[in-house]
Amino acid sequence: MGWSDGTRCAGRRIWVPVAVVLVALLASRAAALDIPLIFTQESVTGGLPESRLVMLGAGGEVTVLTPGFAAAADPNVSFCGTQVLFAGRVRAEDPWNIWVMDVDGSRQRQLTRDMGDCREPIFLARAPVDAPDFVDNVRWFAFTSTATRALDQHGRYPLTNLYATNLVPLAARGTVLWQTSYNLGNDINPTILADGRMLYSSWQRDAYALVFSTWAGEGINQFYGTDTGRWSQLSPFEVRADRRVVFIERKGYSEDRSGRLAQVSMRRPLGSHRVLSQDDGGLYRTPHALPDGRLLISYAREGDSYGIYHFDERRGRPGRRVYDAREWHDVDPQLVVERAEPVGRIPMVEFASVVDIPGFEGAAQLQCLNVYDSDRPEVAAIPHDAVKSVRLVEGMSMTPTEARRSGLQPGVDYGNDTWPPPFVRTRSLGEAPVESDGSFYVNVPGNIPFYVQLLDEHGDELHTMRAWAWVRSGDQRGCIGCHEDKELAPVNRATKALIKAEPMNLMGPRANIEGAD
């Protein structure tokens, strides 16, 4: 039998191994849950295996799916419910890699190699990228990786970004691999939305906020966070039954990404935040939803192991227990069930006109409607017409060796208040004029993290953006203002910068390295 991407559901029938079908039939008699469940068990004692994937059957019986792995985690079940992506290490000293297998644990296949630690895979919609005909409609998946071998901007962790690649080869191109995020502060916890976009947790100076983009990394926008008093939003999950996003939030960050349970509406995230869990001394992890919109959560009180529970939203507490093995942390429950395929999207970067510049992957375009539109008091206080230009400053991450040569020690907490962050070198990409209506329009190097400074007529700094932006090569990105109200609907107008139709070229020179040797 040839390899399948697990998406051929002719006549709405799903091919599932016989063992899984029997488990599903038996599980329907269980009081706690009537859908087979795959989840991660993390060792409480720290022994081997460090973690493993298991399937929950009827009566609470558990089948280990990854007996040959020193560690396995991060399951994600395919839309037809027949396969599961996961992160695994065969030996304890191996890096994490992405694997795929059938939901009964058979036909395991390694998908990534030589990319550092690869974690958190998710199935994406089928999409063609073979321009101009777009006929090779194949399955894609996204994952996080430390492939750059660099440190994050604070030197605390390996730098983690998002990547996307195809599960089965393209007829004419084989395997296509894209880095889709370029944040210097880490991007984690990706999930796929019904409309085909990815939603993920992105470090924004002092906390994780929720950001979405296309699966190819285009159309980046803030979804929720950044002004929440250093509360991080982690492990987002879309509840399609009632169009909301449920997530974990906490002050700062913890290694296990635990915290309280909260939600926002997909329709109006900024005005709909609500804490779901009551403060009873317990911690929550990895929320997921049943098809009817009810929530499954992992929950533990201090000193106990995590177990999987229904969540009682009326009481704001864990409800019926689904499964809890005291010697394991039971987390990240994934339903073995068919679910709706997200909307497929053809990446703009595949057929956009890319300007090739020696030393760069390609050009991109950035436009701003009005730099004076802002919900930041310090920007709102800037007199109109005081901003005469903008400077774009590139950020370059450091490897551990480069950091030590600069007198910095990886793992030492230097705080969050310094900008640029201590483990980032910077250099100017150049300056561009700001028109009298506050607009600017520039060509920038694609796939390069940068921040923006507002300058007065003397070239002095009026305000500095304290987060990283980037534009995928061949793509265009627009913003309303400088940290503007995310629910603002701007006036539909042609800016003076766009009317000129000649974007300022900020592709170089790339000299004046600040903080370099």
Defining traits:
517 residues; mainly beta; Neuraminidase; five-stranded antiparallel beta sheet; four-stranded antiparallel beta sheet; 33 strands; 5% helix; 37% strand; disordered N terminus; disordered C terminus
Q: Concise description?
A:
The chain is mainly beta and 517 residues long. The protein has helices at residues 18-27, 377-380, 400-405, 496-500, and strands at 37-43, 51-56, 62-64, 71-77, 83-89, 97-102, 109-110, 118-123, 140-145, 161-166, 177-179, 187-192, 198-203, 208-213, 221-224, 231-239, 244-251, 260-265, 274-275, 282-289, 295-301, 307-312, 317-323, 328-335, 363-368, 389-397, 424-433, 440-445, 450-455, 461-464, 476-479, 504-505, 513-514.
CATH topology of the largest domain: Neuraminidase
Percent of residues in helices comes to under 10%
Average pLDDT score: 87
- Look at the structure and give the CATH class of the largest domain: Mainly Beta
| Count of helix runs | 4
Unreliable stretches: 1-31, 353-357, 509-517
Approximate shape = globular
CATH superfamily (homologous) name of the largest domain: TolB, C-terminal domain
Q: Which class best fits the helix and strand makeup?
A: mainly beta
The tally of domains stands at: 2
How large is the radius of gyration?
Answer: 24 Å
Largest sheet: 5 strands, antiparallel
Number of strands: 33
CATH architecture descriptor text of the largest domain: 6 Propeller
Cα distance spanning the termini:
57 Å
Q: Strand portion, in percent?
A: 35-45%
Main sheet: strand order = 30-29-26-27-33
